Amino acid sequence: MTSVAPKSAEPGPSQRAAKPHPLDSVFSPKSVAVAGVTPTPGTVPFDIFYNILTSGYRGTVYPVAPGKRSICAVKAYRYVLDIEEDVDQAVIVFPANVVDRAIQQCGQKGIKSVIVISAGFREVGPKGRQREERLKDICREYNISMVGPNCLGVINTDPEVQLNASFARKMPEAGRIAFLSQSGALCTAVLDYAREKRIGFSKFVSFGNKAGVTEIELFDYLHQDPQTDVILLYLEELRDGRGLIEAARRVTRGENAKPILAIKSGRTPQGADAASSHTGSLAGEDMICDAVFREAGIIRVVSIEQMFNSAIMYAYQPMPADDRLAIVTNAGGPGVMATDAAVSVGLSIPRFNPATTAKLKEALPETANIKNPVDVIGDARADRYNAAVAAVLEDPNVDQALVILTPQSMTDIDAIARGICQVHKTAAKPIACSFMGAADVGSGIHLLQAAHIPHYILPEWACEAMADVQRIRRWREQPIGDIERLPVDRAAAGAILDAAPEGYLTEDQGLAVLKAYGLPVPRHMLCTNADEAVAFAEQIGYPVVLRAISSQIVHKSELKAVALNLDSADAVRGAFERMRRHMAETVPEIDLHGLLVRRMIPDGYEIILGGKRDPSFGPTVMFGLGGIYVALFKDVTFGLAPLDRHTAARMVRQVKASQLLEGARGGARADIEGIEQSLVRVGQLVGDFDRISELDINPLIAGPANVGNMVADVRIRLSERN
Given this model, what pLDDT does residue 392 score? Predict the structure, then answer.
């Protein structure tokens, strides 16, 4: 994959909104002090100073090098306090044990931002963590924006700034893409990769330990940055997941929306202590991260290649109206492979309208394939490609085109590339190309780059990039809902939760909490003897269910603590006595509160509604296929609590089980709207009470609309009181 140049001229700082941003001093300082410079080439302190000095920086740079008269023929200073003029930014490369004193002097000097390159902080253990906390305290005291510590630095390619405050080997080309990374080592690899692919950047930031400036503040800055069209993020840890999601939603929606493509590494397995809850065992950090990133409009990618492939497609081509792709190729095999790839990632391959078919039939030989994908045949020259590409782009059934070329002896690669460039000048729809090969097609690829046409080594990569652009488009078209607080009895639920100890509520307590929040709880009664159970069964009608209730019982089926389909008084009485006797014999020490009696719920679809308090994202809600299948198929998705109704609806439709709920194979359609409302209510519940660490409604029996849904079982686990 190779890059293209920006379509428009690079705007400078004067085009930024009049209101200043706190990070302006990070990216556009009028003067920079490099504190800790040494005169030895090939060392980080020297290279950073040399990069600023030689990269075309438009401001003033001051080396701070105790004991040195000058660095690279530039007057050196012992301390930043010795610099006579005002200084906007300091890049600190002193050893870790003196960085705090350097920042203290920066504060006294009135410096607004610092970039701490030095390592030896939180990443090295407790002593380093103490050093880092000291830096944070000083920055708070003097209101200093700090990038780092333990980072590569910051690059701004704006021609009016040209700041390379990093130890990257070379200044990257200017472009429309901002790249943010927690890993400095990855940054050096990405810059080398981008240079070889001719990918340009607007901003490039390594934020390291993010003790000061985080991805959240950077999102806010880049949202306002007129030079940036796409934001790329590499992240290793989530300290404030909810803050990140809220910031991402501001960036990816509404006015001046910009897509965010992210790699989140460090896929963490869930802890063994969560295994007693389906929600806990399924809610690994990575699964929640996938779901909530999706709900924030963040496109999560798996590789640097995919990240840049998609970024280039978005940054340098118009947004397609829909997902319909036309393919033009001179080789049948790659055309078929591209078709398979496109369909597999969610693109559609439309039929051409009659007018397009007529144009293709007139322009191409009889042996050509004039259906989609169009095969112009191996001996095709530029005239055939031009005619085919122009025809498919004019078709109202087509939203975008992929042009594939395989080099053959008669193929005039440069002429075909120039022809595609000409067609592209007047086309209002995106074009991507895949000139397959390397040396033979190189000159044609360069021509495509100059015309701002993305090129991909493999057609499959182009399809993946186009699919990611579709994800961006669909996200922007999704309705934005307001969080609506439904009427609930919060006091009743709070009384139960406040009085309960750490651990699981009993089932009757859990049902009472759900009922207070308006969830569909069946009529039930906790009975302490068989006569009470029979009387209540007669009142609600047969068949009924008996369920043993004890704080020591979490999984009832394992202890035979459930009796189903009891259809008479004798059946209830017998089951009551057998269960109580079985409990006494099996678990002699059990504190049996009684047996819960409720009517047998009619058959329906078994689904799970859950809640979990995630350490990064806070309260979350789960939805998926329930019953015994939840742990087997793991067909679930997550959302941040509280939920709006639109998000709840998307969650229901994201899982494969949604096809069952819609009435697959002649089955009755479930009360999906009721399910969505129940999800909103669960989100409100777990959002209201911090003590709810995990919640399972498994299963919720989903019936048709005329029957409704009903809670069949619930488990709620509480954390200790604060």
Answer: 98
Residue spans of the domains in the chain: they are: 13-237, 317-477, 490-599, 605-718
List, for the chain, all residue ranges whose pLDDT scores fall below the cut of 50. 1-17, 268-283
Residue pair 462/627 in contact (Cβ under 8 Å)? The answer is no
Cα distance between residue 81 and residue 102, in whole Å? 10
CA angle 328, 329, 333 (to 5 degrees): 130
**First CA to last CA distance, the chain:** 53
Select 490-599's CATH number: 3.40.190.120, 3.30.1490.20, 1.20.1250.20, 3.50.50.60: 3.30.1490.20
Q: Which helix (H) or strand (E) holds 609?
A: strand 605-614
CA 602 to the chain's CA centroid? 39
pLDDT at 586: 84
CA distance 126 to 116: 19
The interaxial angle of helices 490-499 and 672-688, nearest 10 deg, is 50
Give the chain's radius of gyration (CA, Å): 32
Which pLDDT does position 13 carry in this prediction?
39
Look up the CATH superfamily of 605-718.
ATP-grasp fold, B domain (3.30.470.20)
Q: How far apart are CA 423 and CA 420, in angstroms?
A: 5
Asked whether 424 and 451 are in contact (CB, 8 A), the reply is: yes
pLDDT, position 280? 43
Residue 301's nearest CA partner among 513, 472, 58 is 472
- Tell me the C-alpha distance between 557 and 628, whole Å: 11
Q: Which tokens in the block code for residue 100? A: 């705090």
pTM: 0.89
